[in-house]
Amino acid sequence: MRPSTIIAHHGEDRKDYHGAVVPPIFQNSLFTFENADAIDHAFSNVEDAYIYTRGNNPTVTILEEKVAALEHGEACKFFSSGMSAISSAILHFVNAGDHVICIDSVYGPTSNFLSEYLGKKFKIEIDFIKGGLDEIIEKTRHNTSLIYLESPSSGIYACQDLKAIADYARDKGIGTVVDNTWASPIFQNPLKLGIDIVVHSASKYLCGHSDVVAGCAVSSRKIIKEMFMGEHQFLGSKISPFEAWLILRGLRTLPIRMERHQSSTRKVLDYLGSHPKVLEILYPDKDPIALKQMKGFSGLFSVVLDTDGQGARDFIDCLNYFSIGFSWGGFESLAYAPIISLSKELPPDKLKAAGIHPGLIRLFAGLEDPEDLIEDLKQALDKI
User: Fold this and answer.
1) Of 251, 278, 303, which residue is a domain's last?
2) Which one, 76, 163, 262, 332, has the greatest CB density within 10 A?
3) Regarding beta strands 99-103 and 323-324, do their DSSP bridges make them parallel or antiparallel, or are they unpaired?
4) Statement to judge: residues 276 and 235 lie in one domain
5) Cα–Cα distance between 231 and 95 in angstroms, integer?
6) Rounded Cα distance, 71 and 3, in Å
7) Which of 190, 216, 251 is the last residue before a domain boundary?
């Protein structure tokens, strides 16, 4: 089945809920049993049984089966947030004293979880790298247990050669995790390239309506079973049935939304690419690695404007259709000036050393008409 058909039909058996075209919300905390033998059977198959919604729930199961199929995985587990899915995937591979290789442009909280939490509490050693295979080979140690990737990555949209890295890691017995949120399962499938676990912030494209916080991990049945019995159960990071139902509802339009995000972004970038106040566009559509392993490109990108920090603030303040916000992947267009928060964390000399231009703006093209988005950008650019 292709993605749109998977979303419409996979994982659903309508005779189980009286032919309803929309699966019901099983908004219950526990499940009861006909007799003691039924309880015994459930606890003998706890990873698949319905016992308590902290573990499994029929509404959540439908969603997990659809997303697993979309990512060409055997199984999926949903979590209460993207960060919960990320930390659980990392913990699955890492023990105290291990070494982790991670790209240096990874999502900020992921970087902090590795260095500030695992590094300090459990003596995990981390090497942050650009993401090339040669550098990964150079940094590999005898105790390297995980290579953590994000392709395209946060902020600069750097891409890693997932197949080459996965082949190397598997030969060395090293686990691999990729955050695939930017591309979505519509435009990239890392498991097909040999990656062990794919994680998503389901708050973004999978849901698509900015009304749920959730995350998921997709992998082999063996790995997901181990994560279910370990990190998912012990950390209690379950998603509610209602949130799963909302993601199911949003998932129905995922392929259509991704095509719209892509087409709108291309039109916006065509305009911005010729504007004299735009110094640089950060978007991976010309990256040879991305062109090799991706089927399309989504709606999140960054631009560097020929202005200072105050000009960046003025620019986002002048926007009408681009709301100011941190997240992305929903129906609404968003803008964010990283200099605002980074200037609170880093002095000017460190900002300069890190190569962070004060005119850097992150933009997300939502589902509004692209011509209106272009007009909005034009009038804001005219004011800086």
Assistant:
1) 251
2) 76
3) unpaired
4) no
5) 13
6) 9
7) 251
Residue 106: both structure tokens together: 């990874």
Residues 270, 236 share a domain: no
Q: How far apart are CA 195 and CA 157, in angstroms?
A: 19
Tell me the pLDDT tens digit for each residue of 131-173.
999 999 999 999 999 999 999 998 899 999 999 999 999 999 9
Residue 213 has pLDDT above 90, yes or no: yes
Q: Can you list the pairs that 161-166 forms with residues at least 24 positions away whose Cβ atoms lie under 8 Å? A: 161/132, 161/133, 161/289, 161/292, 161/293, 162/190, 162/193, 162/194, 162/195, 162/293, 163/193, 163/194, 163/293, 164/133, 165/133, 165/136, 166/190, 166/193, 166/194, 166/195, 166/196
Give the domain range for residue 44: 3-251
φ, ψ for residue 78 (rounded to 5)?
Answer: -95, 150
pLDDT tens per residue across span 353-370: 556 788 999 999 999 999
Question: What does R_g of the chain's alpha carbons equal in angstroms?
Answer: 22
Q: What CATH number is attached to the domain comprising 24?
A: 3.40.640.10
- Within 10 Å of residue 132's Cβ, how many Cβ atoms? 16
Are 273 and 299 members of one domain?
yes
Residue with tokens 């509004």: 368
* Closest residue by Cα to residue 78 from 201, 188, 182: 201
